[in-house]
Amino acid sequence: MSNHVIPAPAPCVIPTSGGGTFPVRRVYCIGRNFAAHAVEMGHDPDREPPFFFQKNPENLDASGEFPYPPHSTDVHHEVELLIALKTGGRQIPVSTALDHVWGYGVALDMTRRDLQGAAKKAGRPWEIGKAFERSAPVGALRPVAEVGHPDHGRIALTVNGALRQEGDLNQMIWKVPDMIAYLSDYFDLAPGDVIMGGTPSGVGAVQAGDEMVARIDGLGDLTVRVI
């Protein structure tokens, strides 16, 4: 019998290609991890220590629909590689970091850019622009046994059939092992943690009625309609 004083919330999960679900504990997102995107956001693309922000597990959404959020008139798409961890730890070496990965997927980091910009100017956290409801559309995760560890391959996004974003996973400034090792120096990583690996250049606004198709070679397509 539970000792909870209110009903326990349902666990947050991502579907997998095998039909099961992956339970999510935390969501870490790296910022400006593609040089061209760093430039388009007004920053120096030279390699510097990475920085991360967080979304909430409840922000992940596999419905195929993205409700346009309130209090914003400038909502942007960002296609990203999602890395799902099966184990964790502290001070994980780069050389063994990939041993902790369960699988990979395609995700979108939807951003209320106007609210994020206002928060930046005021020196405030980004959650209001990044961690709103259903702000992380996701596709089914694919296990390492099926797809290996993708370290190169096309990553792209179209809106209504027009190409908006395009790059290659090998253009990531901080690779997957680097991100895992760095995060483990500051946080206790654990099974169920996921990392969103940054976006290539070409981010832009969407509006209700748009259809976004995000693609990463070997991981399939993620189709999301803005409603």
Automatic annotation (TrEMBL):
Superkingdom of origin: Bacteria
Database matches in InterPro entries: Fumarylacetoacetase-like_C (IPR011234), Fumarylacetoacetase_C_sf (IPR036663)
This protein's UniProt keywords: Hydrolase, Metal-binding
Domain Fumarylacetoacetase-like C-terminal: 27-226
Keyword ATP-binding: no
Gene3D superfamilies: Fumarylacetoacetase-like, C-terminal domain (3.90.850.10)
GO molecular function: acetylpyruvate hydrolase activity; metal ion binding
Name of the featured protein: Fumarylacetoacetate hydrolase family protein
Species: Roseicyclus elongatus DSM 19469
